[in-house]
Hints:
Layout: H1 8-20, E1 31-36, E2 41-46, H2 73-78, E3 86-93, H3 97-105, E4 110-115, H4 122-129, E5 132-135
Parallel strand pairs: 3-4, 4-5
Antiparallel strand pairs: 1-2, 1-3
Helix pairs in contact: 3-4
This protein binds zinc ion.
Keywords: Hydrolase, Repeat
Pfam families: dCMP_cyt_deam_1
InterPro entries: CMP_dCMP_dom, Cytidine_deaminase-like, dCMP_deaminase-rel
Amino acid sequence: MSQPRLSIPQYAMALAHVASLRSEDPYRKVGAAALDHDNRVIATAYNGLAPGFDPSPDFWKDREGRQKFMLHAEINLCSLFRRGDAKLIATTTMPCTACMQTLCAYGIKEIYYQEIYHASDAPEIAALYGVTLQQVTDFPMSDYLIPEE
Length: 149
Ligand SMILES: [Zn+2]
């Protein structure tokens, strides 16, 4: 019997999850992954502060105040490739409105997310531009491990 295999969106989501583990944000860890037109991984990213910035320990105490400084996973992701290079991206949380706009500017046609973010206009933006925006929750990675004999 052949083993079940992750679909491409599930594969991208699993990678996004691994990337989220690297987030330095103690409250919200978001990861994202981009695949090219041959389903090759071209980038993974997570939310965090600008590269090289080392905050004081007090920085993380102000949960509200720090938000404007956090670079979202999708923005960090887009900084790693050129427009048109990515066919699809997966992100552990639905893109916020600004990130959805950025993903559209980068020409990304398929977006998969796990958690819904109700404050986002992403569904409306996706509908207007004909971008696939789909929830992916069924990728229990343990189901895909080869069972022990
Ligand atoms: Zn965002």
